[in-house]
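Here comes just one.
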Amino acid sequence: MEDIVIHGEGNFDLVAELDLFAQHCTVPLRAARHHQVLVTDKTPANVLALAGLVLDPTERGTASVLTAAEALCRAWMPIAYDAIVYCRDRYDQKAGGDRMREKVLALQDEADTAIYDVCRATGVPMLELPTGLSVDERVQWTLQRVESMGLLAA
């Protein structure tokens, strides 16, 4: 994935997307063992939604693997995630933003819809972060919601 996104070598393929999906299933689990609250910028559902946009479903095995990944998201994420904080803000990625996402900049609106739909389909409670907040306001908003859900120890 690094070669594709950072170095511009190769294309998105099923193997790369499956590897990324697996990482998003396991890495947060290990990190969550050591923290009361863990906030990540992606879930396996995000990876699945983006894979659905960049992969050709007619290529051998792609459709069945994506269907299996969707089933895993629906089965696993309600166990592993207490909530999804969904952020719809848009950022100008070319103005000091994340240069690594340049290959998918044209997909922002389509990606937003796809990611939201896949996240919603997991059954994990979704907290929709208001747009236009500063970083500090986002943190406070998120902490208030997480606390109201009883996820923070007193």
User: Anything to note?
Assistant: The beta strands are 84-87, 126-129.
